[in-house]
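Progress against Task 2.4 (sequence-to-structure conversion) is shown through the following example record, which the project officer requested during the mid-term review.
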Amino acid sequence: MDFLVDISQDAAKHFQMSLFRYVLAASVMSILAGWLFRTWMNRRRIQKRRAEWKDIRREVSYSLLTVCIFTLIGVITTLLHDQGLTHFYWQWSDYPLWWNLASLPALILIHDTYFYWTHRGMHHPRIFKHFHRLHHQSRIPTPWTAYSFSVGEAVLMGIFSPIVALILPLHPTVWLTFLFISIFRNAMLHTGREFHPRSWVDGPMDRLTTTTHHDLHHQRFQGNYGFYFTWWDRWMGTEFKDYKQIFRQAVDGELHGGEEAGTLENNGAEGVKIHA
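Structure tokens generated for the chain above:
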């Protein structure tokens, strides 16, 4: 009985934290883009089309399902930790200073690689409709799209946590910081307005993805799979050739993306090739 009580309390904690991160990030990005900087942001809209309230209601409902799945995975991670199988450490002095400083960048790099290949893999014709089609119902993404996943995609995204916890030594502060960076970046990439300055794609910051980079993925489906960085897309030839041109158009207030692009099934999966 005590075990079930502990599990229930742990599940409640994970649910509250996952829901809090999602609502906080989506709310902040919605307020920034839709109210606080509304005039400036509306000049930087990437698509002519606009999401409807029914789209946001669908995104929130599926995001709540994702939060439940993330809660279950969080409980499993805690059980693994209780069995001594994870590598979380509580004292900064347990590891060298260089690792305490490098662990967050390392975690982001690993997650970027994991995201690129799992994301690209979900576009394979055999599994697209089972894993990733639901997320692509958001043709005009909003910050609330961030967690709008099917069960399969939510599991695939969520299991990154226990996998990494089994491999890397991480301080809980580093892990929590990573989780907040991830969800805020997720919400920002789905905002539908370009936050970055025009010079972004002409200098060293071009290694980081932009809202336009991910918005094009929602418009066209087969390309721009990266999350944090543009590296994998460029190494594997999956970045859209006109990405920078459309980025500049968005920054300059020239709306794009008004055309319809066919069915989800055809655009989401047809012709995708995964290079070994």
